[in-house]
Amino acid sequence: MANALLSQAFGSGGIKSVQRGTVDMQGKSNASPANVTITSVDPAKAFLIAESFVLAGGVNSVINGKMTSATNLQFTPYGTLTFGAVLPINWQVVEFL
After folding, report:
1. Cα–Cα distance measured from residue 85 to residue 66, given in angstroms and rounded to the nearest whole number
2. Per residue in 52-85, pLDDT tens?
3. Which is deepest, 11, 37, 59, 69, by most CB within 10 Å?
4. Cα separation of 95 and 48, whole Å?
5. 68 with 42: CB under 8 angstroms?
6. CB atoms < 10 A from the CB of 34, how many?
7. Phi then psi for 84, rounded to 5 degrees?
8. For residues 65 and 87, what is the distance between their CA atoms, to the nearest angstrom?
9. CA separation (Å) from 73 to 1, 2, 13, 61?
10. What is the Cα 54 distance to its own chain's centre?
């Protein structure tokens, strides 16, 4: 079912590229989001997958991740990242043909 939905949304040409990385949200806030530069993709044929976990410290926050352009990802925390909190975000951008 998931493959059928992806094919319907992005076409059946397959995957063109996958980019992966990690960004640390330590010291970030909604006034100071984390920006990540990626290799250019067609935003109409790409999507972002992100996951996070707390390594240390306290977190009472939701992280919003989005593609703001063909070459930029932005991760914005809303809530409280306790001083010393280590909150890495693992991300992937998948682009279809």
Report:
1. 22
2. 876 555 556 678 899 999 999 999 887 766 666 6
3. 59
4. 9
5. no
6. 18
7. 90, -5
8. 14
9. 28, 24, 24, 19
10. 16
75, 81, 27, 79: which is closest to 58 by C-alpha? Answer: 81
Q: For residue 55, how many C-alpha atoms fall within 13 Å in the half-sphere facing its CB? A: 9
H/E/C letters for each residue in the chain? CHHHHHHHHHCCCCEEEEEEEEEECCCCECCECEEEECCCCCHHHEEEEEEECCCECCEEEEEEEEEEECCEEEEEEEEEECCCCECEEEEEEEEEC
Identify the residue whose tokens are 């006034």.
Answer: 31
- Give the pLDDT score at 64: 87
Place of tokens 């991740």: 65
Q: Which of 69, 78, 91, 70 is nearest to 33 (CA)?
A: 78
Task: Specify burial of residue 54 (Cβ count, 10 A radius: 0-12, 13-18, 19+).
Answer: middle
For residue 10, is pLDDT > 80? no
